[in-house]
Specification:
It is a single chain. The protein is built from eleven helices and 36 strands. By secondary structure, the chain is of the alpha+beta class. Among the domains are: about 130 residues, Methylamine Dehydrogenase, Chain H (7 Propeller); about 260 residues, Alpha/Beta hydrolase fold, catalytic domain (Rossmann fold), CATH 3.40.50.1820. A hairpin with a 4-residue loop joins strand 11 and strand 12. The longest helix is centred in the last third of the chain and has 18 residues. The protein is globular and about 65 Å long. The protein starts with 5 loop residues before the first helix and ends with a helix. The structure holds 4-nitrophenyl phosphate. 4-nitrophenyl phosphate binds next to helix 8.
Length: about 575
Amino acid sequence: MGTSYPLVEKLKILEAVVMAPLYGVVGFAGGLLVYSSTVEGARDLWALDLRTGEKRRLTEGGVHSVAEPRPESHYVIYTKDVSGGRELQSVYAVDVRSGESFALEGFEPKRVLGMGFDGKRVALAAAGDGIELWLLELGGGAEKLYRADAVMFVTDFADGLVVGQGVLKGNPATYELFIFNVDERRFEVYTPKEGSVNKQPKTKGGLVLFATTAFGGEKLALYKPASRELKPVELPHPDMAEYKPVEYLDFGWTDGEVWAIGKREGRSKLFLAGREVKLPEGSVLGAAFSGSKAYATVSSLTRPTSIYEADLASGGYRLLLGAELPPEVSSRLGRSYMVKVKSFDGVEVPTFVLESAAAPKPGPTVVYVHGGPWSEVADAWSVFVAALAALGYHVVAPNFRGSTGYGEDFRRMDIGDPGGGDLEDVVKAAEWARGEKLASRVAIMGYSYGGFMTFLATVKKPDAFDAGVAGAGIVDWEEMYQLSDAFFRRFIDVLFAGKRELQRDRSATNFAGALKVPLCIIHPQNDTRTPLKPVLKYAMKLLELGKTFELHVLPDAGHAVTKMDDALKLLLPAAIFLEKYLAR
Ligand code: 4NP
């Protein structure tokens, strides 16, 4: 045997991937560009003076969520976890000019489900006694406006209207809008068409702009609550034909014109009033506008999330905030592409592949299962995917049925069947990788819903994978339901379409005896979305059954990873485990 320590070298590469700083546009406040950055080790808020280039750090230790700023206000509103990762959050305002911040009083820490800031007051939804709508004053004073017993999020607040979306008519397959008129203290549920999906309402001057399937496909529409008028919004652009069905990632108004991020086949583009704003290829994840410039968050599977400045007049762009990957990392990332993998019933599963330049073909491969489940792996930076490829594993990331990005019909396919058809899709991804001679041995790995799929796949499809890495996973839906808060109980009801009897069948704990492959379990101690307790019981079962497994609990950490140290602590055990059980 040699005297070098290849594992130690690999762990250094892993650290370099995790520590690559990420930047994202938040918006404009008080004349400054507000952005998020992980450069100091946690996702914090910063402000940039575009004239002088001066940067100011606004928060420390990581923020949980941030409301869209208002250019006319000097304050940025954000939440911070005050519960050791249990996701109970307080709300703060920071003055971008001085960097001074203060807590908004009268609001006990809660799980916050979306915020809007009208420049003076904050409206938010939070899990408490059911889902509550709150109005907070910057100068103190907090009022509970409304209470509902439904999955519900606030997405915007302006000119006296708080708007959001939710499962508000009891149909798990639809989202309706809600419009709360603050002056009249009146809550209205709105849908343009029964059975349609309506999302991400933005409001301004008494108008509501939102994404809807009411006209077929994914379209934008404008609704005027005062007169109950509704009309579709056209975003004519030559590329729009190609961009069908378009899924709107984000959109809004600037100077009266509508801007939108349209998405197709895992890539997205920014449009302003129907014109494409030229940016690098990949995914546009957010944007803000000032004068003749656009500021956009852009990344790809091989380029970390950065901020670009685009000149709307000339069509040129430049990198404003972002860092190159160190060469020892970028040289290990190979080709990325999308394939459509045909599933058992003919459904085509859009699957991203990131090959490792540090692995042979066929070589060790990881099927990476994203969380959500209403989320996706796009051609966008994912620290898990990049880390695995840099470590020397080809990565195959299926956007199983239920994923976002491919239209609402596809997203809704897992409702009432989590761990059913979607699990088959994930197994097909492994078969594809072997069939294409990309994969020698195949592990399954995922976090959250991806951890759930890992636990379930390794017992229900015991021959499909050679090893599993389950982060923050779910092994027992029945016990988890009992441990969940008002929001996650309703969330689980929606996901299962109320079929409680299905929960038993979709819980790995009831099939533990079937586990055949080594399993690495990694779980945050204070996770309140996917609690640790059922996972510890599962580990005890595995111990009694004599299974090969390892268990890593992350102390003082919760489900949402905002600190780079915690991201590294999640990935280190996975890297060591895969080296032993997959790479050989
Ligand atoms: P995620 O976490 O994958 O990070 O979004 C989840 C937490 C809970 C549930 C699903 C996913 N749930 O069904 O309760």
